[in-house]
Amino acid sequence: MNRIRIVLCRPSHPGNIGAAARAMKAMGITDLRLVAPERFPAPEAQWMATHAVDVLESAKIHSSLGEAIDDCAAAFALSARPREWSPRVLDVRTAAGQAMEIAGNVAFVFGNETAGLTNEEVFACQYLVHIPAHPESSSLNLAQAVQIVAYELRMAVDVAIPFQRTQKLATVADREGLYAHLEDAAVRSGFHAPASGSRLPERLRRLFSRVPGLEREEVNIVRGLLKALLKKSEKA
């Protein structure tokens, strides 16, 4: 559980931060990251973090989501809203099991209480996770959503398959470098014209989000191939 990171993006109510910390602590998760919180630290957070003040005090504040998940092997975005374009979609129980099989830091990313996650924040992650709920009232309180995710992760610990890798998994930063390289190669080769409104960049992200155990060496192979092809094309 010490590999699990909870990331709250732009939380507006400090009470929800405290309640989320309490939910985490109860399930054995202590790594809390806050991205541009509206008000923190705040007494309301302390009041709601019963027996979890240590989680609050050790929480790290980041200016962007990328900074908060940069060293993670995978990131799971939580959203109650379906997206026409999104990474691979999982229910929360499947996501928890998937997270337990990943060797490396794993982040579960939650959006603002009112607006949720932006499309850019969703695409910074490799998975989109839904918590099944009644269709007429599918939006959960932020701390409640954290509690459900933390519970499912706790339950997945005992049934997770031992997962050992000899190679390092690609981090979010590695994946972002690959996406940028792919888009640059597509533009320079004439395959993709940004002004056309093509959704190629999103489709490429969606394609690679379906590779849960993508290794750093594999990313380097693809980028090396792109570099070689572009170099040959320029010489020609």
Strand fraction equals 5-15%
Number of domains: 2
The DSSP helix count reads 10
> Can you tell me the overall shape?
elongated
CATH fold-level name of the largest domain: Alpha/beta knot
Characteristic key phrases:
Helicase, Ruva Protein, domain 3; Alpha/beta knot; 236 residues; 2 domains
What's the arrangement of secondary structure elements?
Blueprint (H helix, E strand, L loop, with lengths): L3 E6 L4 H13 L4 E5 L7 H6 L4 H5 L2 E3 L2 H5 L4 E5 L9 E4 H9 L5 E5 L8 H5 L3 E4 L11 H16 L14 H17 L11 H10 L6 H20 L1
Parallel strand pairs: 1-2, 1-6, 2-3, 4-6, 4-7, 5-7
Helix pairs in contact: 1-7, 5-7, 8-9, 8-10
Describe this structure in words.
The protein is an alpha/beta fold and about 240 residues long. It has two domains: about 5-155, SPOUT methyltransferase, trefoil knot domain (Alpha/beta knot, 3-Layer(aba) Sandwich), CATH 3.40.1280.10; about 170-235, Helicase, Ruva Protein, domain 3, CATH 1.10.8. Helix content is about 45%, strand content about 15%. It has ten helices and seven strands. It has a seven-stranded parallel beta sheet with strand order 3-2-1-6-4-7-5. The relative contact order is 0.15. The model has no long low-confidence stretch (mean pLDDT about 90).
